[in-house]
Structures
1.
Amino acid sequence: MISPIRFLMLAVLALGWMSTASAHHSNAAYDVDHLRTIEGTVKEVNWTNPHITFHVEEDAKDGKPAVEWVFEASSPGVLTRSGWTKRSIQPGDHATFRYAPLRDGALGGFLLQVTLQNGTILTYSLTPAEQ
Amino acid sequence: MDVPSEKRKEFFLQRLNLRKSTRMVGLFCFVVATVIIVANTSTAQETGASPAREKEWAAMAALPDFSGVWIPDVKDQHRQEAANMPPWKAEVLPQIEHMLAEEKAGRPALILGNCLPHGMPSWMLITHNAFEILITPGRVTLLGEVDGNRMRRIYTDGRPHPEDPDLTLHGHSIGRWEGDALVVDTTAIAPQAYIAISEAAGVPNNGDMHIVEHFHLVKPDVLYDDLEIDAPKVLSATWKTTRIFRRYPERHFEITEGECVQEDLKEGKDQFGNAIFVPNPQRADGSVRPVQ
């Protein structure tokens, strides 16, 4: 029988692997054929390679409670070349987020476009000719 | 009046000491001056004044201008994925077909998920990120974005490959200029380096891979990398393919610093209030894990 300490060590190892072994990935987990939109408030910005992440609290409406989404975007290099800066959207900003949802329905997506309250539209492209 | 002999002796000794001191000062000045002259001469040589160095750098001006930030033509990468499949060995092809089907079904394989550099040839084949080329005497250097370790050193000083090289993800590259093309020969690539055809399909080369590349400008700001890849463990023939990179001099693009592992972490504090990185959990498919 596995001892509790050994179990704990294995669990820590497994969690460690899960949390550190997946940064380079294909976007196939996201459904780019069925884009969606939510409105919400930015809670957290991680301006990191190889993908930026934004935590967004969706507005509570129609009796549904506020829920937190995590959106990935491309890299700081690609967004910078597309005219963004790390301050383009900040915690506290309310905006509309257009994204490719995770195929399994979890609260995550690949962020494609942000429309700020002042009407500014932020988007990006890997291809500079399209920027 | 007679000067007492003792006084005369004392006077004589004083003068002698004075002359000694003067000589010492003179000698000191000579040594200092010599040191300054020698130091200045060697400094001049170190800062680039030698004729050999001037000639070496002047020769750079005659080379094609590859320097600057290059951005991969990602659309063409996708066209190549479909149009020019590597000649996979029969036993390898089912692995690739399975990965392509899994990717299409929304279950991508994490072939590059461990944050090691993509290595050769995957960096050239599938990366979406920019790289910078530096050309200096005897060497061409490719500095990539996203991986801190994404770097290729291509030696153009005439050296051969090492006899007993350490295997690395980028291998050992030697290059030569043939007309307007830089021809690069790469060996000593780690068997674990993938031949990736997308971010979710590819196999490790499994050893003995040899890559020859011709880098050449087809327009002032369009660089082609014609690759010929021999990987006898997984390919049945030499695979020839081309990747396109574009330069946008009017946009002043710069490479951003970044480490692939950053997304696995986020900013936090330890118990003392020090700024540290803390784990940022992710899902098994590599996407970030939504907060439930």
2.
Amino acid sequence: MEMTYWNRQAETMERAALEQLQIQRMRSIIAQALKTPFYQKRLSRAGITSPDQFRSLADMQRLPFTTKDDLRQNYPVGLLAVDMDEVVRIHSSSGTTGIPTVIYLTQEDLNAWTDLLARSITATGCTRKDVFQNMMSYGLFTGGLGLHYGAERVGMTVIPIGGGNTQRQVQVMKDFKTTVLHITPSYLLHIHSRLDEFGVKPGDLHLKKAFLGAEPYSENTRQKLQELFGIDAYNSYGLSEMNGPGVAFECVYKQDMHLWEDAYILEIIDPATGQVLPDGQLGEVVLTNLVRMAMPLMRYRTRDLAFVHPEPCPCGRTHRRLSRIQGRTDDMLIINGVNVFPSQIEEVIMSIPEVGTNYMIHLTRAGALDKLTVKVEIYSKMFTGDLNALEALKNKIRDRLRASITINPHIELHEPGALPAFEGKAKRVVDQREKL
Amino acid sequence: MAKQLTIFLENRPGRIKSISDVLLENSLNIWAFTIQDRGEFGLMKMIVDKPEKAQLILADRGFACVLKEVLAVVAEQDQPGNLDKLTTALLERGVNIKDAYGFVSLKDRQGICFMEFENPEQVNLEEAIAAYGFKVVSGQQLYEL
């Protein structure tokens, strides 16, 4: 197989040189981090007051971890290391308790990120001849804009269509002879289930590849999608705290994802003890971004569980490969590609006086898409006996939840005391979705 | 006006019996009832002989229930055109009916109807209805019929 690279030198660098580059970049990240009150305090507590104290990669373990909670507590500008004038882009993700996390990028940071995406896209064999239909949502979410700029940098023809409106998506695929999709696996399954209705066969389309992301899925689902559409489907990994997509991406060999180690330091730790685990062992993914100066983030605990393949890949890239995400260390749910914490739902329910404090979250699959049902108990003292008031209450809960988690839930009202009561950490989530 | 008990119920087997069990235990008599269904839940509306007592007991058992004033209209003689006369009276006053249920008492063939209105305070409904020959009765009169 002939290999194409976006940046052959960076992608095939000898490990020793790669590690030297990491050390050098880590020093600039520490220098940058020391400009923020948050890291100044954290690092000095760990005995680090100057970048020179970072001598080898073994020194990584001297550095403190950073968590999502740290980001929330320092919202919005506590980790900003440059003047706001230098910032050219802000991205944000919904927070676990209503406080979002925010990411800042300078022009240089944005260039570095876009370059990683161009590299990722090229690793799958795409070229400027491809037509790229970007079906992820745009906006504060990093998935849409990230791949958009990466695909433009490669020189692909980019269709920034965003999510939703299946019939139009298929029409656009036909009209512009789309060759590459960026999409969640469940949405691609859903599209297939509706092709008949539009009088379209997969063979009428010109699809060659799909970048799948934003939600977990199995190798079986990949195989199924590849067969249904006659395409190659590539797995990708990213999270908004690390800029978004482009942290790790599969090459044409599709044997898990090359994590771009000139831009990120990858560690796998035991989530209980924080001890670094050897390659091959399953643990929590911990990442340090080496190419973002606006907002340094070191040893960030992603709460994603995965392992590392240390063996070289036939593609010639020296960057180690990360497995599919095997699970989470927390209770985060992924619903139609959107990250949702049960605590976000709880917070909305607690803010509505007409319902009790007990609730249940049910997840089912309707066709290829996830369905979220939130069951709440009505609160006796607020009951008026009016049917319209109950309908209005359901609408109010649905609207507030949609505003918070961006997903349209189905609301069910129940009698007081009808839902199971829990003491302590409740098992309020019932996930009846078959694994994709 | 009569007092109507309105109870929130989930739409699944056994929920109505959970109400009738409580009423039986307390020897409460049901005069009339109707059920409105809204998917996973519904409202049960009842006229019982001791509404305040019934409400206290049901609330004590954890049910979401309220007492509401409804208009109880009696036509002395069941005959064709009664409902038409009643709706004419309401239309003249521009009143909109929110909910209503009616039946005929088999023993003495009186027509009986319970009604809820939007904004009932704005017009003197009892007078309007009486003008068409109907009786508006209180809860107490009703239970003694």
3.
Amino acid sequence: MSQIVNVDVAVVGGGPSGLASAIALRREGVTDVLVLEREPEAGGVPRHCAHPPYGIREFGRLMTGPTYAARVRERAIAAGVDVRVRHSVVALEPGGRLQVATPEGALTVQARRVILATGAREAPRSARRVTGDRPLGVVNTGALQAYIYLKHLKPFRRPVMVGTELVSLSAIWTCLRHGIRPVAIVEEDRRGKARWPLTLFPRLCGIPVYYGWRIGDMRGTGRVEEVELVDGSGRTKRLACDGVLFTGQFVPEASLMRMGPIVVDRNSGGPSVDQDGRCSDPDYYAAGNLLRPIENAGWCYQEGLRAGRAVAEDLAWSNTGRTMPAAVPILCGEAVKLVVPQRIARSSAQQALNSLQVRLSEPRSGALTIRADDKVIWSRRIRSRPERRILVPLTALLAGEQPSHYTVSVD
Amino acid sequence: MRVVVIGAGVVGCAVVRRLTLDGHQVMLLERAADILAGASKANSALLHTGFDAPPGSLERELMQRGHAEFMAIRERLNLPLLETGAMVAAWTEEELAKLPGIEAQARQNGVDDVALLTRAEALAREPALAPHLMGALLVPREHVIDAWSSPLAYLTQAVANGAEARFGCEVTGGRHDGRHWFVETSTGTVEGDFVVNCAGLFGDRLEAALMGDASFEIRPRKGQFVVYDKPAAKLLTTILLPVPTERTKGVVLARTAYGNLLVGPTAEEQEDRSRATVDQDALGALMAKAVELIPALADVPINATYAGLRPASDKKEYRIRHEPDRGWLTLGGIRSTGLTAALGLAAHAADLLAAREPATPIADPAWTTVPNIAEHRERDWQRSGYGEIVCHCELVTDREIVAAFGSRLPPGDFGGLRRRTRAAMGRCQGFYCGARLAELTRGRLAMPLSIGEAE
């Protein structure tokens, strides 16, 4: 029989947003706050990002990822958070009940509220459906950094890199500092995804960048031996290499939610939430990169703090017997890939998400427009791209009559 | 008799087991670093009844023998059985019209528990199926098994009873002097009285090399598969089979023993016998097909893609060449039914050998078990005392990895470790666990995950 632990709030995932939400809960006076982290150490992705810039806003100074992770952990412990490592949540159940695997045996955690903060990861080769053999030496940035910084091992010497999102710069940095020389960077898009002048970084490092190309074939019987690139017109180019490093294309880590009582939004890939971060099951909240791919650690930390405060308020509020007002859905219209939150209720003062986060499905310039039913209630000229964050103040949606739905589009 | 079995696919593993238990002295030769390096590593993991096999065929007989023996021994070997049943689903009027014929064939093949289902009955059984389903034939005893642990269990038991297995040992030639075989390999000459050719995709070439001529020609047929993440498993219980065409059984949707849902295979003829590539467009087409049949799959991410080559030949049937005077038996041309038929093929081989020289079965054979990696039975992480969960997606513990390396048949390569434990087989494909696995497997795999220390 599994042991039962009762807590006020259980946080699933001990990265920046999860730890921050726990810290905020303790600061708001919530007694039993439990963080469940499956790795041997809390701290999340920054643990293996040994480069700046981390921590400016949270700690007032520039630090590397591992230092930042350690400082956030210390802050959580100091705040009285119970951080449990090697605790793997294996099932979410209605009523805030979690099934947890631990080396000491199974545990059932019964929480009044649960905050989901499982983060995001890069899409692997399989999910990208890349053509070719399936040899060794094909990894993501996350795995590469764990190889280098946690295990001091190298998965390859001369990889071909795929993708030019911001994380690719971190990957280059990691490679070059540890004796790995990327052969080339391949970007299917016609231009780089990081902002100028960061896009210049690979070339300054002497790494050729192929814009408008993708991997058309991958060869290798044991380890990767060669990739064939193909461009839009069908031209091909072969590159000898001993690995392929897939960077970016982050996806929220939402499988537990899909298997549990939580509705996952097709657009964001994360749980569908209201402005408090509340999921379809109101005992569950979500924060951080699980909500959408992806923001930096500092952003996730702030989002975590606000989620923690919103949950603290919810706990206090539910003690008074008040009920939630109905939430209005926010729909994605023309050229809009995702919105977070996906619905909004006129409720609390404490909003975990103080802005509507919008991402485009394609590069666009036009009027980003919000409609309440069919009536335009807000509009702003934008010129943006899918990888850029767009924020709309939530106050823009809360003025006027309550509609049946909102629609966000680029007109 | 001293028997040399060539090829450690599922058929080879089953043959080694049977002949060892029958009292023969068996040596298995495999050129790869581990078992299941060829066709056997990539199939749809179904235990068939033989309901749709050609009536009166050896294939039908051996599938049914294999099915029966699997059911009889699986508990002693700790092999899982996911009892699902199968439905041959009709999506058009034309397909619907073919169901009674398939039903008649099933009954002719001795599978008389089949039942025609109306559209409503089929949808009641599988509510996530698309509404354009028209009807189905239910085949209750078609099930899902663990296609990797099963052959591992067969060979493990054989080794525990005295069989020997050599990996990294490629057969390069050989001669029969009228009484004995001298099989030349990359690691020396192996003597035997009898050779069983289980070389799968290279079965015809092995025959040509050792017998001077090949009685058949392998024509590799590639099958690609897409594996959906675990949330997909709740969308389908029953194996979903298409109404078959002449060339292939078509695209199947089925649960896996590991809690996923798979769709595949494609059927693509090719010359190359080693290279089984996945292809972006073909994988996309499989996913489109899956969503057409189960619309809710559109919201489930995929975990993995894989491809395998089936050793199809110039004829549809199993290619058996038995020359007792020359001490030779080929079990060839065995396609997707091989997983089911392996134990039947092994029994058939044993019968043929016994006709030449009766053997004395081992009186009290050792029974060995393999670790369970099926999702519907207790997994290692559910028992306390492990150190850590290494692979979070598939919940693989360090204890399981250590046990795999300490077993009678330790993994020879990373694929072998994946197939024994499920490590890195989940949705992140090693994003979280790759580095830890590289550390845990250092110095233990034919081709290491890491190429060396970071500078």
